[in-house]
Amino acid sequence: MDLKAYLAAKRERVDEALKSVFPAPEGPAAEVVKAMTYSLFAGGKRLRPILCIAGAEAVGGGGEPVLPVACALELIHTYSLIHDDLPAMDNDDLRRGKATSHKVFGDAVALLAGDGLLTEAFRLMSAAGGPGAAAHADPRAILRVIRLVAEAAGHEGMVGGQVVDIRSEGRQVEPGILEFIHRHKTGAMIAASVTAGAIMGGGTEEDVEAAARYGRHIGLAFQVADDVLDVEGDSAKLGKGVGGDARKKKVTYPSVFGLARSKEFQKSLVEQALDALRHFDEKAEPLRAIAVYIIERKK
Amino acid sequence: MDLKAYLAAKRERVDEALKSVFPAPEGPAAEVVKAMTYSLFAGGKRLRPILCIAGAEAVGGGGEPVLPVACALELIHTYSLIHDDLPAMDNDDLRRGKATSHKVFGDAVALLAGDGLLTEAFRLMSAAGGPGAAAHADPRAILRVIRLVAEAAGHEGMVGGQVVDIRSEGRQVEPGILEFIHRHKTGAMIAASVTAGAIMGGGTEEDVEAAARYGRHIGLAFQVADDVLDVEGDSAKLGKGVGGDARKKKVTYPSVFGLARSKEFQKSLVEQALDALRHFDEKAEPLRAIAVYIIERKK
After folding, report:
1. pLDDT at A70
2. So where are chain A's domains?
3. Which end of chain A, N or C, is more open, meaning fewer C-beta atoms within 10 Å of its C-beta?
4. Can you point out the beta strands (E) in B169-248?
5. Is the CB of residue A254 less than 8 Å from the CB of residue A231?
6. B190 neighbors B153 (Cβ within 8 angstroms)
7. What is the pLDDT of residue B137?
8. A289 Cα to chain B: minimum distance (Å)
9. CATH no. for A3-296
């Protein structure tokens, strides 16, 4: 399949849906909406929404009901980047080649823009079954997805991973802690994206379990590949300096296991992800291609 | 009715429910859970959860189904306080007489503890209809409540009010902007608390509308009373210095209208709130008593 065309088409669909969430900001609080959309439209790959849509397609869904959930995943991803970049956390001035939120809007508004995006993500999902939404979205499925996404984003998921990541900077850590960080900080939301798609697409319990298994493997593979790219990558393509992890004393797979073993590891994760997809037919082709893309991408 | 006993009993019920949300923290990310519970159990009045329960009782509900929502409201309130206290915002060292989260855990963990509480609030609500939960919670009602709470907490509610509040510090503002800040920063979540209770309690559309109208009036009254207390209050009872608003150059009702007019205004808001309650029978007694308490409290 032509993955490039697939990603471009889905990205456009997601961007359109995201734009419709935020009409032109007005009123006294317009500034925070500007900050929210500034980061939301700063050039992300939309990987999580696309994985969500591809997860729905794999089970024979993928129409309108999945879109609010796909958008919500990107809102949560964007909030996490804004808060990560704050002086209280990584103190980064640049993200994807653009000034970070707090450099443009100040720390207070950046903080609140992150809070606003996280909150809006849940509003969007809750509205997926409401008036004006696709009528066949099952309210119990939406509640299940909200719960799944909240678990993946909260202290038992991404937030938990970020805390351990911050506390591990500049330290020698056990491989088990390294895996904890990567599985929680990045892996949990990627896994939840595919799983949420399979649920919204109307998949069976077996479908949802296979999608979750695929998601867990590519979630970890994605962060290991990110670590590898940070060492080997092309600074212009990444939109940020190469070697940033080492500069920030982040704990990474190459720093603990070396480059060669990290690359072997990410390859074996993708193989396991593809194995989980045997459960599905050709409708899972995009998920298969994305798994390979995740470790072969250059940014 | 004996409001003091009512508040004490409900507070205990809410505290028990909140404790069951967070078992003893363990694992690599235990620190963030400690930070979340540190602030959650730092001595709040539990006004929002109690309003939620009282709202459910007013429509003849108030059993188990309302508790996860009541707890979620307190989690969101606590997150907003942690983020508000951060150096990026108000930079406060004390809250209710105790060191603020970032003074104890550092800025990064405090930020993430707030993010974790906000996220957990939505997980809790989404689980209200799931396995192990009260079986008669209607999934559509839960989705409606999640949407209502997200609207009240996000950029069209509390977050929007906070942005305008921050941007108005040290400035002369129009009375319309002052009302915008108070209605959004504090009023929206208080109104949502009562309304969510009426929905979870199984109220009719008329019930829900009356509860919302009551909530809007007491929501604004609460923040005006807070402004007045900041000028007139007893520092020991408040657990913070009196006159903090003036020191921080916050825009308040007394600073714009003077004390006498501010007190008249809060009284008329409570009268309007009581008027909205005429729709209900004696089961709304607690809501009636709370409306009066809101402007007569000393902390």
Report:
1. 97
2. 3-296
3. N
4. none
5. yes
6. no
7. 78
8. 32
9. 1.10.600.10
